[in-house]
Amino acid sequence: MDRPTDRVTLLADVAGIVSRSHDLDETLGNVVDLVAKRLDADVCSVYLTDTDLRHLTLRATRGLAREAIGRVRMAFGEGLVGLAAKTAAPVATEDAPAHPAYRYFPETGEERFKSLLAAPLIVSGVSIGVIVVQTVTTRRFDPADVDLLQTCAQLIAPVVMNAQLLALVASTQEDQSRIAAELASSGVRSAAAARLAARPNLAVKGIATSRGVAIGPIYFLEDPLDLERVEYEPSPEPDQEHRDLLGAVEGARRELHEVRDQLGERFGPEFSAVFNTHIQILEDKGFVSKLEVAVRQTGDGLRALREVAAAYRRMFEGIEDPFFRDRGIDVEDVTRRVMAQLLGVRHRNIPLSEGAILVTSHLMPAHFALLETEKIAAIVAEHGGPTSHGAIFARALEIPAVTGAKGILAASHPGQAAIVDGGSGVVYLDPDEPLRSEYQRAQHRYELAVEHLDALAGRPAETRDGRRVALTANVGLIADLRLCERHGAEGIGLFRTELLALAQRGMPPEDEQEQLYERIATAMAPQRVTIRTLDLGGDKAIPTLGLEKEDNPQLGLRSIRLSLAHEGVFRAQLRAILRASAARNVRVLLPMISSLAELRRSHEVVAEAKQELARRGHDFDPDIPVGVMIEVPGAALIADALARECDFFSIGTNDLTQYTLAVDRGNERVAHLYDPLHPGVLRLIDRTVRAARRARRAVSVCGEMASNPLAVPILVGLGIEELSGTASAVPVVKEIVRALDAQEAEKDAREALEAGSAAEVHAIATRRLRESGLLEHPDIGGWLAGVMNGADGAAAR
Ligand code: PEP
Ligand code: MG
């Protein structure tokens, strides 16, 4: 194995086997076959640690007697394999029988073999197995061979660990108790031992979505009731029906006051102002008297509400000005709230207990606007994937989350104790004491590591050979600014304005928007703030916005298409952004551009907004940079044309991956196919970077990929100048950038572009992280080693 490309291909193939792994024995069998063949060795075997973590048993082999599988067992420290496990370090010897630690196992027919190379499988610093190659003729294993086998070991270690954990979970209660007792009596103390020993009563495996660990009681978030379809039995007594309806109006009014005050406190007045409008509607004599007339006529409160709502809807639809026309959603929202009261349902402002673990069917962005997020310790969703917008908000707010946790709704119940491990995607129900305390310790260790990295926030993100990479943050709430400062983000690379719209279930008036943008721009100045225009639609729907239901919302009237279809709202938003640009640190970003026509029309609307402001005498940045998000393959392919007509590019890899690979980013059933490191996606990024360079335009990445440790070396190698990701990931990404050499990264990137599969790219990136010494990093090394097994970007979180 002399050529580096052969090594990468081997690692890619191992990564490929691992990512397709369903059955441990089959996986290990395939790995040993492959490694023996490619390393030209006579034997390749894998030994795995027993549950006592003190012995190893032969689990797969190519070249040794097959009957020896499951039979050959050795203690840690016994023989060369035991030595590698005990020292958690590779062992290489030309003359194995002459080595002082050599031990002969007759069952294997091993006497024929001369040279040996063994590499331990390590998880959380603990050896959980050993992979070994042996040759009949004498062979000198060089450092590159050692490195290669060690990387193979690292690729398979997480799969082994997960399989062992799952086997444990699936085993009977008796077995679990026996193993726990054995472990307790053996006195073994280590992270892995504790995880194996302290088996939970039930574990549900989902997709790792937002890092962090939480321990707390489960809280069920019901899906909102479909009020249009609900059964309703009016009172036979018309006066009673009348009283019920007025009581519901009063209840809704009280509720609105509460919600307004709470949201205002949490997110600022802009987020709560809409409720003033709603309160006003409920206090409006015309609205209430129309309801009274309708309930007298129909004797049915719900019908009265529906009729009045329909009448208002028709009225609003007739208004010419799109902004006022859209206000109809407020009336709809208010009537829904009154309906909910009438039916005795409250599905807003859900009272949460402090430290609750929210369990829900789908994780929606609107949850973050409507719930008291500071009380949520973690979120678990039965469905969905790690790059849905709800998942992104969870990461932005640093709330640990697991999505695609099939069976969680049926397996858990409100109030039940649970541990959510957002890094591994496992939810433990009714955890027992040893598991709880292990997680508490792990939580503490993680907090210390973050604290340590945060303390180094002032160091520049610069490669070893001096290339600067700007590390900025994706933000959606004013509360996020605190995180930007804490983690040392160098500005805001993406401000998602839609959360404001989701909170208000419609876009607020220009003045309110301006105040919010201004606050952000002022807080960050002189650092840059990139404000993206509304990116609604797709999974970021506002039920009351009046958007028509679409069969394929991700391919429908979303994002810039929606803005251009509602130019009044779009222009008002652009005016608000422009008014916040007086300090010259604001940029406008247009999402989901797929044609020059959209870009040109957007420029025209920007120009109109500027003229309007100039007429009104407002100060703004006349040269405000206008950038394009590259998140549709078609846009990447015409990047040269787009670059000539915009000021900068920001590559939205979340959508770019979804559209390039035809994989719905929110669908857990295809989440395993979603991989931004797919060479197809990389080629589009490369094309975009080249086009930007030719036109001398800046180019950044603002998708989740920018926070994915495996992607960082490749993106730096592709020439990305700015990575905008989750604020909390900035310190880790900085450590990676600082450990890289830009020229080596460029070489890797070239190789990655030529790769045939995402698995090959994973292997290239894995090798780089390894060779840069990051896996030995005292703060993030252990975590990175775990991440490397992920076939998707989710693993990085
Ligand atoms: C993206 O698509 O990569 C992106 C940053 O936008 P969003 O995730 O908000 O769709
Ligand atoms: Mg997008």
Describe this structure in words.
This protein is an alpha/beta fold. It contains 31 helices and 22 strands. The strands form three sheets. Strands 7-14-13-9-10-11-12-8 form an eight-stranded mixed β-sheet. Strands 15-16-17-18-19-20-21-22 form an eight-stranded parallel barrel, surrounded by six helices. A six-stranded antiparallel β-sheet has the order 3-2-1-6-5-4, with helices on both faces. Helix 5 packs antiparallel against helix 6 (191-197) and helix 7 packs antiparallel against helix 8. Mean pLDDT is 83; it is low at 168-173, 182-201 and 789-797. Phosphoenolpyruvate binds at residues 389, 392, 494, 496, 535, 631, 652-655, 702-703.
Small molecules in complex: phosphoenolpyruvate, magnesium ion
Instruction: Give the tally of β-strands.
Output: 22
Mean of residue pLDDT?
83
Radius of gyration: 29 Å
**Stretches where pLDDT falls below 50 for ≥5 residues?**
168-173, 182-201, 789-797
Q: Characteristics of this structure?
A:
single chain; alpha/beta; 22 strands; disordered C terminus; binds magnesium ion
Write the layout of secondary structure elements.
Elements (H helix, E strand, L loop, with lengths): L3 H16 L4 H15 L4 E7 L5 E8 L10 E3 L3 H9 L3 E3 L21 E9 L2 E10 L7 H28 L2 H14 L4 H7 L4 E4 L1 E4 L2 E8 L17 H30 L1 H15 L1 H14 L2 H17 L4 H5 L1 H15 L13 E5 L4 H6 L5 E6 L7 H8 L4 E3 L4 H4 L5 E5 L4 E4 L3 H23 L14 E6 L4 H8 L4 E5 L1 H7 L5 H15 L4 E4 L27 H6 L1 H13 L6 E5 L5 H21 L9 E5 L2 H5 L1 H6 L3 E4 L1 H9 L17 H16 L3 E4 L9 H7 L4 E4 L4 H10 L2 H13 L3 H14 L9 H7 L10
Parallel strand pairs: 9-10, 10-11, 11-12, 15-16, 15-22, 16-17, 17-18, 18-19, 19-20, 20-21, 21-22
Antiparallel strand pairs: 1-2, 1-6, 2-3, 4-5, 5-6, 7-14, 8-12, 9-13, 13-14
Helix pairs in contact: 1-2, 1-4, 1-30, 5-6, 6-16, 7-8, 7-9, 7-12, 8-12, 9-10, 10-12, 19-21, 21-22, 27-29, 27-30, 29-30
Bound molecules: phosphoenolpyruvate and magnesium ion (MG).
Magnesium ion (MG) binds next to helix 25.
